[in-house]
Amino acid sequence: MGLLLKGGEVLDPGAGLAGRLDVRVRDGLVTEVAAGLAADGDAVLDVGGALVVPGLIDLHAHCFIGASDFGPRTDDVARATGVTTWVDGGSTGAGTFEGMREWVLSRSRVRMYAFLNISAIGLMYLKIGELNHLAYADVDAAIGAGRDHADLIVGIKVRNQLEVVGDAGVEPLRRAVRAADAIGGRVMIHCTNPPVPMAELLALLRPGDIVSHFLHGRGHGILDDAGQVRREVRQARERGVLFDVAHGRMHVKFPIARAALGQGFYPDTISSDLTLGGAAGCVKDLPTTMAKFLNLGMPLAEVVRAVTATPAKALGRAGRLGTLAPGAVADVAVFRLESGAFEFEDAHGERMTAPRRFAPELTLRAGEVWWRRSGA
Ligand SMILES: [Zn+2]
What we know:
24% of the residues lie in helices and 28% in strands. By secondary structure, the chain is an alpha/beta fold. It folds into two domains: 3-53 and 326-372, Roll (Urease, subunit C, domain 1); 56-314, Alpha-Beta Barrel (TIM Barrel), CATH 3.20.20. The mean pLDDT is 96. Bound molecules: zinc ion. Residues 60, 62, 89, 246, 248, 273 line the site of zinc ion (ZN).
């Protein structure tokens, strides 16, 4: 029959589920969440004392090993870190997307979506920015690819970094917005060391668009000279712009994160921006990124919401992904919330020793055990 996850601490802020509850899974779907469920023919998995959450959604990571400068092997990483939905953050553009679809997206067990890079060449070779030639920001080509691959492409990515856009300023962003408008998708912007102040970038964004790397520490940022979150940043959030961590090798600075969290400005979504380099370096993986925010003072339920319900909504899949509500696909992540003295590092080499971390224990993908920590 199915599976019964027994004795765990369920936490699904999107569905309002919290507490010691059992989760029944049959035919790939969650069928029941309640206290004290009987086995009723199902195989029982004892997850006593562990944290049971919806399978994680990494809203901004990378893939396409060997063809972009980026990209760990998605399934190997995903299943051992509780990630059941992986969103590529613009590794490919109109000229390269089909290869990523063929070789990665369609062959991965982890569910995948993608933001299409407004640059037709995507992130093939980072030493030369993908927008150094503005002609690569080909709106018609992006619209065509977006329509051809509407089942996977959820929006348009653009890197607004001075070294990438050069003299083009916000023109690539304007083109990204035009393409996203045409395909009915969101814009995801990279805002590290932007060519203009944040307010000017934000003014071009529409409700639902996503600001990745908002806690970066290079150039114009979210804080004013007094260290306060800028008024325009709060106003952008009020009109529905999302602020996404997208940690990466270069995009989180602990002092900025502390300031933002201290002023109650939590990330809407916590994503890893995982690359091969980041996996080997300060990012490590999504659960490590989540632990940083938990240790910096973000409440546990908000951390979980930022990797489940909110990114599901950003993908247009609210209530279907990122939830354990009966009827949802049974993507489930189980962690031990460990206590001790653990070391974390930001993207600027600052280290912190902190008491909590998420140790992955079990991952279900569509109701099947996809990975289990050996010995668990
Ligand atoms: Zn990225």
